[in-house]
Amino acid sequence: METSQQQKIYNFSAGPCILPQEVLKQAQDEMMNWHGSGVSVMEMSHRSKEFISIAEQAEKDFRELLNVPKNYQVFFFQGGASMQFSAIPYNILGDKTKVNYITTGSWSEQAQKEAKKLAQTVEAWQDHASKFTTVPNPETWNIDKECAYFHYCDNETIHGVEFNDFPFEKVEGMTLVSDMSSNIGTRPIDWEKYGVVYAGAQKNLGPAGVCIVVVREDLIGKQRPDTPILFDWKVFRDAPTKFHNTPACYPIYVTGLNLAHMKSQGLQHYQDLANKRASALYDYIDASEGYYTNPVEPKYRSRTNIPFRVKKDEKLETKFLAEAQKVGLIELKGHRSVGGCRASCYNAMPFEGVEALIEFMKKFREENP
Amino acid sequence: METSQQQKIYNFSAGPCILPQEVLKQAQDEMMNWHGSGVSVMEMSHRSKEFISIAEQAEKDFRELLNVPKNYQVFFFQGGASMQFSAIPYNILGDKTKVNYITTGSWSEQAQKEAKKLAQTVEAWQDHASKFTTVPNPETWNIDKECAYFHYCDNETIHGVEFNDFPFEKVEGMTLVSDMSSNIGTRPIDWEKYGVVYAGAQKNLGPAGVCIVVVREDLIGKQRPDTPILFDWKVFRDAPTKFHNTPACYPIYVTGLNLAHMKSQGLQHYQDLANKRASALYDYIDASEGYYTNPVEPKYRSRTNIPFRVKKDEKLETKFLAEAQKVGLIELKGHRSVGGCRASCYNAMPFEGVEALIEFMKKFREENP
């Protein structure tokens, strides 16, 4: 990130990620004195009417942006999606003993690992052979309707595998649970298909420190007696403003500013933008005659996390990353577990960022044939 | 908090709380572009060298401010002290079945309630008769050295009861665990007496979203096999930069700014200030001939959370709180569970704030005899 202050920066971080300049500017303007209150949002009691108005507005904007039905609760929790990996079985295992997971990458694998601490996990499929580059034909999935729920990760941040046509009919009658951390806000959600949707805010919705958890009302209240208090959705639902204890107030506030900004643009804008960014980048990669490669089966390519190799050559990739950084294209390194490069293009990434990346990729290829 | 922008505000919130103006100003100045990086701290990957430098500096300043020995790990967790209520028994129960708790107010009561989900809790004493206005003679405590640890809350935020001379000799040989959320940074800590010290940052150290947990190295690695991943100190200790998953980056950054500020003042400054603020306020209350009252036995009165009644008259208290707010003395309402008033005076509260409060209390008494 050592670049001159004048240079335009495009931040392709997989999270925490880019936020709109307007949102950061508003946070900056309001830092010392929020709306004439004389105090910073960071200094407000979470029980004050000022902070309650901030949290309520953030929830309202989230609901409107994504059209969340009234019979779903929306929570702003701490601990990220990883905390929900544990909280989900504690809350909705009920009197069942088994849970159904499909593993299509690193995050769904970690989610399942947590569930194993409480229940028998039935694997719908595990793609060790393909190294997480596809989703198998749903006809071959091992679906066990005796399980308390079916869990999947809608978009795998590290492997760049996204469900673009989840086969809802296959899990009909089961409670469907989905981690949407890295693609929430990029398309509509058909809520009535889901029991629980959760998403760390720090990719598409706000800064780190908030995990938005949406739960269908009837699933609340089935928690195990030994459920740790921070996991207990019922305790939070029944607490004033749904905060049992002090939440991450400032991250909720900035998430709220960003949700208001997103609402003003509309969900369709973000969906179109996600498609446009991803198409441009995959088209360029696929036309590069193997210079750049993405290993994922086209149908399941992520629109937000685009891993790619440069001639499958680690030395060349190191050079690519260093030169990209010099021209303000930052955080393009792939996750340490898979290597290579990755362009994460979340909601706040303008199309110009992807254009600049493609221009750089072209130039780099010419200079390093 | 509806006050004019010109008016000086003194924020007596029990948390989240007042922060130094210098710290907020620095955060404001750096909001759009941290140290020439071209990005906001909120946009940085938690694995970037920039954010790692921020987190490492925050830990270094905390260690220096409080003189933390090398054989203790310092963590910046999410979930507040409430998450540690659960995490502590998961991590250090080991092969024991019992844990020893002393209940001196609402927070130690909640901590014990969480421990009961995993272990048999032995109560050292429970002051239901006194409604949490004292600490009993340690000679009468029920101490069970077969327990995995002894837990106490060093300062009860709601009831205003503080341990000012913890009887370490009584629990010798046991692992001592203390919640210091509401008085950390107000005096030195004799680390070698402790196994675990934890504190939500949002009172004395920074904004909400961070809980600082200090653990003696040898206590890490005894976690139960079913420990949820976010509770598992070993997983975090062994992760890069001690972050298994995305932490609350921005709250850690602001906590770091504040710790650097505190270090420049020195711990003695805060200890003297805490004593001076508390003495002035208790002296005034005690000299008010029963107009203002604090129910706590003088020896155990909190230096940071000072609950008081106004003629034990709820109507008069409502008037007191409304008039105080008008002159910029905000968040003086007592916790909903105990009522009355409460002045929380954390590290960033200048002595002038307490002087202004005492002046107001005098005037109010004159006008409402």
Automatic annotation (TrEMBL), chains A, B:
Q: What pathway, per the record?
A: Amino-acid biosynthesis; L-serine biosynthesis; L-serine from 3-phospho-D-glycerate: step 2/3
Catalysis performed (reactions): O-phospho-L-serine + 2-oxoglutarate = 3-phosphooxypyruvate + L-glutamate; 4-(phosphooxy)-L-threonine + 2-oxoglutarate = (R)-3-hydroxy-2-oxo-4-phosphooxybutanoate + L-glutamate
Q: Name one GO molecular function term.
A: O-phospho-L-serine:2-oxoglutarate aminotransferase activity
Q: Which GO terms describe its cellular component?
A: cytoplasm
Q: Name one GO biological process term.
A: L-serine biosynthetic process
**Main EC class of this protein?**
transferase
Highest taxon above the source species: Eukaryota
List required co-factors. pyridoxal 5'-phosphate
Q: What is its EC number?
A: 2.6.1.52
Q: Which InterPro entries match?
A: Aminotrans_V_dom, Pser_aminoTfrase, PyrdxlP-dep_Trfase, PyrdxlP-dep_Trfase_major, PyrdxlP-dep_Trfase_small
Q: Which residues form the Aminotransferase class V domain?
A: 9-357
Q: Which key words are in the record?
A: Amino-acid biosynthesis, Aminotransferase, Pyridoxal phosphate, Serine biosynthesis, Transferase
User: What's the family?
Assistant: Belongs to the class-V pyridoxal-phosphate-dependent aminotransferase family. SerC subfamily.
Which named protein is this? phosphoserine transaminase
Question: Gene name, please?
Answer: Contig9011.g9636
